[in-house]
Design brief:
alpha+beta, two-stranded antiparallel ribbon, 2 strands
């Protein structure tokens, strides 16, 4: 399933190979089950224009998607946090 996209008339396709090609890895331990995914894509079209596209697992409701985005933002902000140097 895909979120809003200005290219909504373009046919959907599976993107597992695209994700694999980017070398993206995640920490998933043996016995853990990945139950949903939210993927934010930066896409450069044939004209060189850039757009963002949001894709997500079937069955993932808007509140779950919003929560996952918020948590991702919090994690990203924390990973970029640099405490001030002692003076």
């Amino acid at each position: 399933m895909s979120g809003w996209d200005e290219n909504a008339d373009t046919p959907l396709r599976k993107i597992g190979d695209v994700i694999d090609g980017l070398g993206i890895e995640a920490t998933v331990r043996d016995g853990e089950l990945v139950s949903a995914a939210l993927v934010l894509l930066k896409v450069i079209d044939t004209d060189g224009d850039t757009r963002l596209s949001l894709a997500y697992s079937d069955g993932l409701g808007w509140i779950e998607r919003a929560g996952m985005l918020r948590i991702a933002e919090t994690i990203e902000n924390a990973s970029n946090y640099q405490p001030p140097e002692d003076q």
